[in-house]
Amino acid sequence: MADDVRVLGMDGLQQLIDVLAGHGYSVVGPTVRDGAIVPGPVRTVDDLPRGWGDEQDAAHYRLTRRDDDAVFGFAAGAQSPKPVFFPASELFWRGRRTGEEFTVNEEGPEADGHGLGPYALLGVRSCDLHALAIHDVVLLGRNHVDVRYAARREGTFVVAATCSSPSGTCFCASMGTGPRPDAGYDLALTELLVGGPHRFLVEVGTPRGAEVLEEVESAEALPVDVQGADDVAAWAAAHMGRTLDTEGIKDVLYANAESPRWDDVASRCLACTNCTLVCPTCFCTSVEDVADLTGDVAERRRVWDSCFTQDFSYIHGGSIRPEIRSRYRQWMTHKLAAWIDQFGTSGCVGCGRCITWCPAAIDITAEAAALSWTPQPAVTT
Amino acid sequence: MSMVDSREPGGSPVAVLDPMLPRRFRIGRTRQDTRDTYTFELEPVEGEPLVYAAGQFTMLDAFGVGEAPISISGNPLALGPVEHTIRDVGVVTHALITAPTGAVLGVRGPFGTSWDVTDAAGGDVVFVAGGIGLAPLRGAILELIAQRDRYERVVLLYGVRTPEDILFGDELRTWAKDNGIVVEVTVDNAQHAWRGRVGLVTQLVPRAGFDARRTTAFVCGPEVMMRYVASALVDRGVRENRIRLSMERNMKCGVGLCGHCQLRELFVCVDGPVLTYDRLAPLLSSREL
Questions:
Q1: Which residues from B are below 8 Å from A184, CB to CB?
Q2: What is d(CA A133, CA A135) in angstroms, rounded to the nearest whole number?
Q3: Do B6 and A150 touch (CB under 8 A)?
Q4: What is the rounded distance in angstroms from the CA atom of residue B40 to the CA atom of residue A180?
C-alpha cells in the first residue's frame, strides 16, 4: 500500500506534534532530563533528544553527543512510558472518620495531577510498545480491571519509532519484540539520515493514524526511503549488544529452581529494586495507608513495589522469601517463565534496562544462559 | 503477541466497579474464642449482605491502619451477618480485634476460590485443620452438615498448640454428637488436665478410618503442616486431585493486580486460596517459592 507509506521532514514532525496537540492529545515523548532520556511532555521537536545518543552496558549509562541531528538516535531510555499510565504513586481514596463511622471518597486518576489523557505517545520503541501491550493484558485483560490505568490508557494515540541505535544491553531481536514496530501503533516512523535529507518514513497502522497524517504535509515515499527504513531495522537487529535464547526457557527455569546459580547471583545482587523500577512490564504494587495524627483523616495510595524487598512476601511470622537468592529467582522466573503460564507471553521484551541500571552489573541474559548450561533435576521431597 | 487495543470503538475498557474501594460493614456480635482470637459478625451499613462461598476471603480494613486478607468463617448458607475469625498477629489484625462493637470496618470482596464441599458428596470427607486454619473450614463443615445425608463418613482432624487454643469448642462437640462427624483433636503441648491426644495432626491421618479412594480432603493450616498432611493423605491412598489446600500469601489487592501473592505461576488471591494438591505439589517442594 504505497499510499500508506509517506515521508516527513523535521517540519512535518513538528506539524504532527501540533496536529496531535490540536486534537486534544497530551503529547508525551522522549526528553532529556537529569542526564538521561525519560518520557516527558513534547511541544516542539526541540523537546526531543535532538543530537543525543547514548552508551549503555551493564551498570553503565551515559548520554553522548551525536554528530548528526537525529531525534531518535538512542536506545531504550531510562524509563519506558509505563509511568504515564501507571504512576509510581497514586491516590485511591480519601476518608474521614467520625466516631465509629467513616466515609470514603473515591479519587479518580486525575487526583494526583497525573493527568487523564488522552495521550499521544511519540517515538515509542517496539520493545516498549510490546511492554505496553503486555501491561494492557495484565491490567485490563482479566476479571478485575485496573480502572485508573484503564481511564488513562483509553484512546492513546501511538506514534512508534523504529530503533536505529540499539545499545550494548539491548536484546529485543532475540525476544521477537523489535527493533521495528510490528503492531499496536497508529503511525510508525523510521528516521532516515542517509540517502537524502534528514527525514522520517511514515507507515500507517490505523484509519485514525491515516486521518492525522492527512493533516500533515508529507510526500510519497520513494523506493529509496522504503529500502532505507528496512536497512535501519536490519542494521539495528544485527547490532544488539546481547541475546537471550528463549527456546524452552520456561522449562529451564522451572527445572532449575534449586540451581546453585541462584546462590551465585544472590552473592552479587544488592536487592536494590532498580531492575524492577526500570522494567517496562513490572506491575507489582503495594497499598499504603496514611493517616493524620488524630487518625481521623486518612488516605490510601497505591505505590510501585518490588519483589526484591523482604517485606514484599511478608505474612505474620516472617517473609516467604527472606533470602535474596529466592527473590532474584522469583523475579527472573516470573519474568521469563511464569509470565508465559499467566498471560501467554514472556514478561521480558529485551529492552535491557534491568542490565543497564543494575549497580552490580547483573545480566538477565547471562543468568538465563548460565541456567541453560547447567540444567538441574527438579528437586522433590 | 496479543494486544488489547483500547483505541478501537467498543474495544475500550468498560467502566466497572472499582474492586479497590471498600464497602462499610458494622461490627455486630463479637465473641472471644481464645486468648488471642475473636470472631465477629459484620453487617453492611448500606446495601446487600455479603454473598460468598466457603473458603473465600475478604480484605478487612481498619480505617487509617490498613487491610489484611481474612478468611470468612461463617455459614455461607445463612443470609445474614458475615463472620470472620481473626487472630491478633499484626498491626492490622490488632486494630481489627480491638475495634468495639458498633464500629465500622471496610470490606472488599469476597475474593478467591472456594472449598466446593458439595463436589465431595457421595463419598467420605476428611477435614484437616491446624490452629486458626479451622476458621476457613468452618463454612464448609456447616454447609456439609446442612446436607449431612449426602456424605458418607466425615472426619475432622484438628491440631492446635495447646488446649487453650481450641477454636469453636462447643461446635466441635455438637458436630461430633449431633452431626455424625468424627472429631479428633490433638495438641502440641498440654498441662495435666488435658486427657486428649498430644502430637502432630499428621499422626491422626493414618488412624482415621476413611475410604481413601472415595475421599475428598480439605486442609487448612500452616504451610508446613499442609505439606505433611497432604503427603500423609497421599500415602493413605487419597488422590492428589481430591486434596484441597488453602494457601496463605501476602496480599495487597485481592484481585490479581498487585503481584504480592504469586506462587510461581499462580496468583493465590484469584487462582486460590483453595487449590488442589496435584497443582500445588511441585510448588511446595521448593523452599521460599
A1: 3, 5
A2: 5
A3: yes
A4: 59
Residues in chain B closer than 8 A to A337 (CB atoms)? 265
Instruction: Count the alpha carbons within 13 Å of B4 in the hemisphere toward its beta carbon.
Output: 23
Nearest CA in chain B to A334: B264
Helices (H), chain A: 10-22, 82-85, 126-140, 147-153, 172-175, 207-214, 223-238, 249-255, 261-268, 274-278, 324-333, 339-343, 353-356, 364-373
B-chain CB neighbours of A379 within 8 Å are 285-286
Contact B33, B47 (CB under 8 A): no
Which residue of A97, A323, A338 is in closest CB contact with B265? A338
**Can you read off the three cell numbers belonging to residue B168?**
469453636
- Tell me how far the alpha carbon of residue B6 is from its chain's centroid: 38
**How many CB atoms are closer than 10 A to CB B196?**
11
Note the pTM of the prediction, 2 decimals.
0.94
| pLDDT tens readout for residues A97-107 | 999 999 998 88
Q: Does the predicted interface ipTM exceed a cut of 0.85?
A: yes
How many beta carbons lie within 10 A of that of residue B65, not counting itself?
A: 18
Q: Which three cell numbers stand for residue B132?
A: 486458626
Nearest to A100 among B20, B22, B102 (CB): B102
A308-363 pLDDT, tens digit each: 999 999 999 899 999 999 999 999 999 999 999 999 999 999 999 999 999 999 99
Name the pLDDT band for A58 (thresholds 50, 70, 90): very high
Using alpha carbons, list the distances in angstroms from residue A124 to A4, A120, A180.
19, 10, 11
Find where cell 538516535 sits: A73
CB contact under 8 A, A298 and B64: yes
